[in-house]
Amino acid sequence: MKLRVPAIVLAVHPVGEADLIAVLLTAEHGKLRVAARSARRSKRRFAGGLGAGAVGDAELTARAAGLWRFEEFAPRHDHAALGRDLTRFAYVAYLCELTDTLLAEHHPEPALFAALARGIARTLAKPADPRVLRSFELALLGELGHLPAFDTCCVCGTALGPVDVAFDVARGGALCPAHGRGCSALPAVVRHAAIELRAGEMPELDTSVRRRLRELTQAAITPLLPRPLRSVSFFAQLAALPREAGDGSAPGGQPGRGGGH
Ligand SMILES: [Zn+2]
Q1: What is the 217 CA–ligand 1 centroid distance (Å)?
Q2: For residue 55, what is the enclosing H or E element?
């Protein structure tokens, strides 16, 4: 059965001389590993080539057994901006690798598909913005059922007002005074920013809030990863460049470097 679906390329693995296996995220079928015959030779079927972060329409042949066939891909965006900007390239690589690493195959996640497409489109259109990374990380944690509690105590469910409260990612997030005794506090402004980002808003964030948010999402994500992400070591290399290519807001980046955002 042939189908044409919106898809995001999460990863591409060359096989032999001309074939490749691609990992796609689709809204309807979730994450799929698909086999593309002669993809690296066909400029007609795979115009512009295939790279992680490409968003477009994929023509697939569904098969009862084995990998689905990846027949054709028509990109919707021009990815030239990524070739000119290492930081934005690293952002898209990170979003895709994180998704590929944490999602199981064949579980449709339409909201996550939309969130990833939005994050990539934003990164293509504008200078690298760490809020895009945080927003997507929170969306992904939400879909996976690992989003920390932000507005209620994660133990007893008590609603928490706009005050600094105890917070422990490992225990599940925010804690009321009774359950959070001895835990370090998270500023209310950070908790509020996380809630806004999760809702798809782009609040103004100062450097310390950005750093706390990055630490928070990384603390939630790192235990879920079976291995360190390659794209994160790329961020570290960017941060080590003499020019201020890294902004310190990337996962694994060094706080206090750069600061263009
Ligand atoms: Zn409580």
Answers
A1: 22
A2: strand 55-61
pLDDT digits (tens, 9 = 90+) for 151-181: 999 999 999 999 999 999 999 999 999 999 9
Domain 131-226 class? mainly alpha
CA–centroid distance, 159 to ligand 1, in Å, is 9
Contact between 232 and 249 (Cβ < 8 Å)? no
Write down the CATH superfamily of domain 2-75. Nucleic acid-binding proteins (2.40.50.140)
Q: Above pLDDT 90, what percent of the chain?
A: 73
Distance 240 CA to ligand 1 centre (A): 42
Which of 189, 164, 163, 166 is closest to 177 using CA atoms?
A: 166
The predicted-structure confidence for 32-80, as pLDDT tens digits, reads as follows 999 998 887 777 788 767 889 999 999 999 988 889 999 999 998 887 7
